[in-house]
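Reminder to self: tokens first, then the designed residues, so the page reads top to bottom the way the pipeline ran.
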């Protein structure tokens, strides 16, 4: 991810959802970053529905 602010926010979301640190590392790969962001946002939505 190129936008540092968005990257830091995404790292916080990954950590709050207790997901693998491998996802944080993969954010550096532009080919994977978009898919990771979409997946984490989807999981956040599910998490909010459950709470």
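Designed residues (51 positions):
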């Amino acid at each position: 991810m190129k936008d540092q602010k968005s990257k830091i926010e995404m790292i916080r979301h990954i950590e709050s959802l207790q997901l693998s640190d491998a996802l944080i590392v993969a954010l550096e790969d532009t080919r994977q970053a978009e898919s990771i962001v979409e997946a984490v946002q989807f999981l956040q939505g599910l998490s909010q529905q459950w709470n």
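The chain has one domain: 4-50.
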